[in-house]
Write a structure and sequence with these properties.
Elements (H helix, E strand, L loop, with lengths): L5 E2 L18 H16 L4 E3 L9 E5 L8 E2 L7 E3 L2 E15 L2 E7 L2 E10 L2 E7 L5 E7 H14 L10 H6 L1 H9 L8 E2 L5
């Protein structure tokens, strides 16, 4: 597999709603592995298909970076296990239940070097198709739940900065303008809004 370019803030695809996957075929498997490799190359903990230019409802999360005790009811199967990583592919995620609330600073591979406090649910249950296209339901707590919610937002065209107040977002305006123009340095390949 190869590392895919990550689309930066300002790219139209980041604001589009992804479409459900109806069957598991080679193109979906190739997408999942490409996304996993891209996420690891970028040192990320989650990635949505929109971020690599694909409008299918697929996300990957790296659960090795997060304590196993935070993951419950784990009947989903990891897609990759190498170099100390364990990636969970989540196809067609649907939020079933959520509870609690907590604030934490978030960032995004599509918005490099910009961070902000976001309030999210502390515990969530999600129904989805796994890498074998079996329907499973999992409960995620804390950081892992936050990552899953962040990536699910991407599938609906929502960015983490949309959860930040207008005053705080105004402080980010000049940095966001630079990212939109592609004036950013990353350790991973990117596609800026002006290149699309």
């Amino acid at each position: 597999m190869s590392v895919l370019p990550i689309y930066l803030y300002g790219s139209e695809i980041l604001r589009k709603k992804a479409k459900p996957v109806h069957e598991l075929d080679n193109s979906v498997i190739k997408l999942i592995y490409g996304m996993a490799e891209t996420m690891h190359k970028a040192n990320g903990v989650g990635l949505a298909a929109n971020q690599v230019g694909d409008l299918r409802r697929v996300i990957v999360v790296d659960v090795s970076a997060i304590e196993e005790s935070q993951r419950e009811e784990s009947d989903g199967e990891p897609v990759e296990r190498e170099r100390g990583t364990k990636t969970l592919a989540i196809i067609n995620p649907q939020l079933v239940e959520q509870s609690g609330s907590w604030v934490m600073e978030e960032g995004c591979l599509s918005i490099p070097d910009v961070r902000g406090d976001v309030t999210r649910s502390e515990r969530i249950s999600v129904r989805f198709r796994d890498v074998n296209f079996r329907e499973v339901e999992m409960t995620f707590n804390g950081l892992l739940g936050r990552v899953v919610l962040h990536e699910m937002d991407h599938l609906d065209g929502v960015l983490f900065i949309d959860h930040i107040g207008t005053a705080k977002r105004a402080l980010m305006r000049s940095e966001l303008r630079k990212i939109k123009k592609g004036e950013v340095e990353t350790s991973y390949p990117v596609m800026s809004a002006v290149e699309v």
